[in-house]
Write a structure and sequence with these properties.
With 161 residues, the protein is α+β, with helices and mostly antiparallel strands. The protein is built from 5 helices and 4 strands.
């Protein structure tokens, strides 16, 4: 084995290593105790873990969207539910159909009376939609109105009031 590595044994010691060997013991770094490095690494890891958790908690509060009130959530949920249920129906999508101007007036008066406030559904003809009719729906125990519009391709949209 020695004959195999004879070339390495005959090489000169590199200058950097020779300088380190020539230093006095006072100039050398003190040897570290065994295990102290792993203890320090564990302590540093724990500190970083806690700091990361605190930073994440703070960032969560800063970046979280504002909480919606339960009334808003219920209103949106009810509007979406009514839209999904009634736009799928082709024959009875609305309670009151609008075919003429007097039908629209009747629908608006009826729903306004039921909701206790004047309603004025928008005209969406410039967007290609015409009012098909409307219906009275329930919203968390109270009355709500749904106006339904349709374009010439039978696409529907609703306005929930």
């Amino acid at each position: 084995m020695a004959a195999l590595h004879q070339g390495l044994l005959c090489e000169a010691v590199p200058e950097r290593m020779q300088a380190a060997l020539n230093q006095t013991p006072e100039m050398r770094e003190p040897p570290q105790k065994q295990g102290s490095g792993s203890w320090m690494r564990a302590a540093a890891s724990a500190v970083l873990l806690v700091a990361g958790a605190v930073a994440g908690w703070i960032a969560h509060d800063v970046t979280a969207p504002p909480p919606e009130t339960s009334a808003q959530n219920g209103f949106v949920r009810n509007a979406v539910s009514a839209h999904v249920v009634f736009t799928k129906k082709r024959s009875h999508a609305v309670e009151v159909k609008v075919g003429k101007a007097k039908d629209e007036k009747h629908l608006v008066r009826w729903l306004s009376k039921r909701l206790g406030r004047p309603l004025n559904p928008p005209l969406l003809t410039t967007a290609g939609f015409s009012l098909v009719g409307g219906r009275l729906v329930a919203d968390d125990g109270g009355p709500a109105a749904q106006f339904m519009y349709q374009d010439n391709k039978k696409n529907r949209l609703t306005l929930y009031v």
